[in-house]
Amino acid sequence: MAEEPESALQLPPSTAADGEGPTEVSPETATPEPPSSAAVSPGTEEPAGDTKKKIDVLLKAVGDTPIMKTKKWAVERTRTIQGLIDFIKKFLKLVASEQLFIYVNQSFAPSPDQEVGTLYECFGSDGKLVLHYCKSQAWG
Amino acid sequence: MLSVSMEEDEFFGEKTFQRFCAEFIKHSRQIGDGWEWRTSKDCSEGYMCKTYFQIKPGTVVSHLGTSAHVQTCLPTEEALELPLDDFEVTETTTGSEVIKYEYHVLYSCSYQVPVLYFRASFLDGRPLALKDIWEGIHECYKTQMLQEPWDTITQQEHPILGQPFFVLHPCKTNEFMTPVLKNSQKINRSINYITSWLSVVGPVVGLNLPLSYARTASQDE
């Protein structure tokens, strides 16, 4: 993943409130706004066209899961949930026996092959997709 | 009106189970996802179930229609009048089978959580072995499951139907559901336990919930 951490620019606290959920965004009306410049590192030219634009993803921890120091990431639309899970697991240095789950709407785990772009179209708001992640030992 | 709060209800009872299933099925009906409610003979217990069919692709074989062989002899007037269909190239898929998948969601009194039962069979009733079902599983789970499937998946008798099913063991359900539940309490949003739980465990055994369930998974109180 071409993550562009923007540690210099954090979301202001008021917009990072818990409980924020997606507004009713229907796929037809949700033309995603271009990612804010904060999520794209300088010097990277995004190719023209919506399909190439990255999605702003905001990752929030649930439960005892460690909080990621960088929460906001620019993610390619075609990145799958599984890809995101693998990335977070590495980032948090989880051990093999630990599972990581990602939720939209703080309640629903999308299928592992679901694409971030699709999730953004359904659940994104304010130009970003909020995903909650939670670690657990679910199996075995 | 049920006055069970989520705080008391991390281990939820059968009535709450049924309530969540009813809401889940309501949405399933709206989107044609095929889930139904079934009750035991004495109607004291019930469960949710879904059946779907999948064609397991086999090998595609092309060959000429057999009637073409008949036409290698001298063409007669009769032959020339035969419809062109007889000379068509036909394709058959050898080895392709239709597989019936069944998923049942039951309530476990001992664990006080929902449990996923599943099985797969060919149309003639021959059951699929667990290792054959794995082919439908997402890659990310395969490695894990192949290493320790026996801890997680057992074959048991369906409590109501009395037939053998594979069961995803419920012992870890609370472990991954509790943070989600606690979070929902914190933000004052009720969640449908069944929807959340099934969205997590379903993909492990090849059952993926359409995204529209996510909208119904939680609502502001």
UniProtKB/TrEMBL annotation, chain A:
**SUPFAM superfamilies per the UniProt record, alphabetical:** Ubiquitin-like
**Keyword Membrane in annotation:** yes
- Note one Pfam family from the annotation: APG12
Q: Where in the cell is it found?
A: Cytoplasm; Preautophagosomal structure membrane
Q: Name one GO biological process term.
A: autophagosome maturation
List the keywords (alphabetical): Acetylation, Autophagy, Cytoplasm, Isopeptide bond, Membrane, Ubl conjugation pathway
Membrane topology (UniProt): Peripheral membrane protein
**Matching Gene3D superfamilies:** Phosphatidylinositol 3-kinase Catalytic Subunit, Chain A, domain 1
Q: Which residue ranges does the record annotate as region Disordered? A: 1-52
Instruction: Note the superkingdom of the native organism.
Output: Eukaryota
Q: Where is the composition biased (Low complexity)?
A: 22-42
- GO MF, any single term: Atg8-family ligase activity
Q: Which GO terms describe its cellular component?
A: Atg12-Atg5-Atg16 complex; autophagosome membrane; phagophore assembly site membrane
**PANTHER family, per this entry?**
AUTOPHAGY PROTEIN 12 (PTHR13385), UBIQUITIN-LIKE PROTEIN ATG12 (PTHR13385:SF0)
Q: Which family does it belong to?
A: Belongs to the ATG12 family.
Q: How does it assemble?
A: Forms a conjugate with ATG5.
User: What does the function comment of this entry state?
Assistant: Ubiquitin-like protein involved in autophagic vesicle formation.
Q: What protein am I looking at?
A: Ubiquitin-like protein ATG12
UniProtKB/TrEMBL annotation, chain B:
Instruction: Report the locations given in the UniProt record.
Output: Cytoplasm
Q: Supply the Pfam families for this chain.
A: Autophagy_act_C
Q: Name one GO cellular component term.
A: cytosol
Which biological process terms from the Gene Ontology are attached to this UniProt entry? Answer: autophagosome assembly; autophagy of mitochondrion; protein modification by small protein conjugation; protein transport
One Gene Ontology MF term: Atg12 conjugating enzyme activity
- InterPro entries named among the record's database cross-references: Atg3/Atg10 (IPR007135)
What domain of life does the native source organism fall in? Eukaryota
Q: What is its main location?
A: cytoplasm
Q: Which UniProt keywords apply?
A: Autophagy, Cytoplasm, Protein transport, Transferase, Transport, Ubl conjugation pathway
Q: Cross-referenced Gene3D superfamilies, in alphabetical order?
A: 3.30.1460.50
Protein task? E2-like enzyme involved in autophagy. Acts as an E2-like enzyme that catalyzes the conjugation of ATG12 to ATG5. ATG12 conjugation to ATG5 is required for autophagy. Likely serves as an ATG5-recognition molecule. Not involved in ATG12 conjugation to ATG3. Plays a role in adenovirus-mediated cell lysis.
Q: Which family does it belong to?
A: Belongs to the ATG10 family.
**Protein name, as recorded:** Ubiquitin-like-conjugating enzyme ATG10
